[in-house]
Amino acid sequence: MVFQRPNPFPTMSIYDNILAGNRLNARRMKKSQADDIVEKSLKGANLWNEVKDRLGKPGMGLSGGQQQRLCIARAIAVEPQVLLMDEPCSALDPISTSAIEDLIHELKTDYTIVIVTHNMQQAARVSDETGFFNLKATGEPGQLVEFNPTKKVFSNPDEPSTEAYISGRFG
C-alpha cells in the first residue's frame, strides 16, 4: 500500500525501510539476498542511482518525491500481486508527480496497480481501466457508477452522471 503522503519509517535507514516488509513476514535471508532485494526494489522504483551511496542514511532525509518512491520500493520488495496506491501524488510537486506517473507505467507490466485519485487528468494518463464512484444523494457511502476502459470513460461514458462529472457539470 502506498499512501497519500510519503511515510518512510522514521527511525530506519533507506536500506532497512526496503527490507521492513520481508522482516515483518519473518523472511530470513543472507546479507547478499537482502542486498539484492534492496537493489532490485530501488531500481524498480527508479531510485537506486539517487540513493545507492547513502543506503545507511535515514529515509526521512530524502525529498518528498524520493520518499514516495522509497515507499513504492518498500511495497514492491515483498513482491505483491496487487499494489494499492491511495492518491500517491497528492502531496507532490509536478516534477515528482511526473516521476511517479512514469513509474506507474513501468510497474504495471509486473503488478496489478489500483490507484485512487481525485485528479481526473491523472486517471486519464495512468490507468487502463477506470471506475467512477459517486456518493449517494442520501450521504450514504458511494457506489460504483461505471467501470470501463479509460478511453471509453473519458470519451464516451455509458452513464450520464459519469459524463456530467467528467465535463465538470457537477462535482
Molecular structure report:
The protein has 171 residues and is an alpha+beta fold. It has 2 domains: 1-117, Rossmann fold, CATH 3.40.50.300; 128-171, no CATH class. Helix content is 44%, strand content 13%. The protein has helices at 14-24, 31-44, 48-51, 64-76, 94-107, 120-126, 150-155, 160-166; strands spanning 82-86, 112-116, 129-134, 143-149. It has a two-stranded parallel sheet with strand order 1-2. A two-stranded antiparallel ribbon has the order 3-4. Strand 3 and strand 4 (143-149) form a beta hairpin. Helix 1 (14-24) runs parallel beside helix 4 and helix 4 (64-76) runs parallel beside helix 5. The longest helix has 14 residues, at 31-44. The radius of gyration is 18 Å and the shape is elongated.
Question: Which labels suit this protein?
Answer:
single chain; 171 residues; alpha+beta; Rossmann fold; 2 domains; two-stranded parallel sheet; two-stranded antiparallel sheet; 8 helices; 44% helix; elongated
